[in-house]
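Much of what follows relies on a compact textual record of a protein's fold. Here is one such record, which you should read through line by line:
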Amino acid sequence: MKKNPSKKTAGETLEAEKDTLHNSKGRKKSMAYMKKLFDKGNFLAFVKRIRVKYEIPESPAKKNYPYPPSDWKYKNDHKKRVALEADIRYFCLAERLHPHEWSDPITVYIFYNQIDLLYRHNTHHLCMVVDIPEEKIAPNSRKTQEDDDRLYPVAIRISPEASVRDILDFITKVYNPEILELQKKYQGNSAPIGSAKTSSDEVRRRDKYIFTLSKEGYSAKEIVSIVNERFGELLDTGLIGKIISNMRKKERTEV
C-alpha cells in the first residue's frame, strides 16, 4: 500500500521547505566548495590579514554567531564595520563569489573559526529566484543587480500563470539548444561551484530511497517528483529506472 510522503501539517511543511533547500544539489555543492575554499592558502592569508587589521580575536564557537561579537574592540564602530564588510565583499568578487551569499559564511569564519553556510532562503543553490520589479527599486539595487548579472547571467523569466510542470517541461526542452550555450558563454565569470562533488553517501541514500518507493508501488514518473522535492535533483524516468534496476541486482547478490 502506498504511503503519502508529501502529506504534512502546516508546521511540518515549513520545516520540510527548509530541509528541501538544505538538501538541494546546488547547496551540497556549495558546501563542498566552501570547505575546499576555506582550506586554500590565499583564503587563510586573507583571514589572517583581516584579523590583524581589525584586531579580531578568535572567539569560541557559538550557536547563533552574534554579529558583531561582544568581545570585538570595534563592535560599536560603524566605520570599521563598513570597512570590514567592504573588504569581505572585494574578496568575494575576487574569488568570483556572490557577496550576498558568501559574505556571511566568511564573516562567521573570521570571527568564530567555524565553517557554516548558514540558513538563508534562496542562496547557495546555483540558481536564484528574483522578483525583478522589486529588485529594481530595492536599496542598493544597482549593486545587487550588477552582482546578479555577473554571477547569475542566464535568466528564465516565468509567467505568474506557469505551473511547475510548465516550468520543468520548458527547462527540459530548451536546456541543450539555448540554456547550455549561454552558460558556456559566461563560464569563468563565477567560481566553479558546479564542479564540486557531492558525497557518495548522499548518492547511496538517494538510490536506496528511490528503490524503497518503487517497492511501495510508485511509478517512475511519481518518483521523479518526490525525489526532486526531497533531494533537489531533477532526474528523468530513464535514470530512475536504471537506479531501480541496479538496486534490484544489488539486492539479489546480497541475498
Observations:
- The chain has a mean pLDDT of 78.
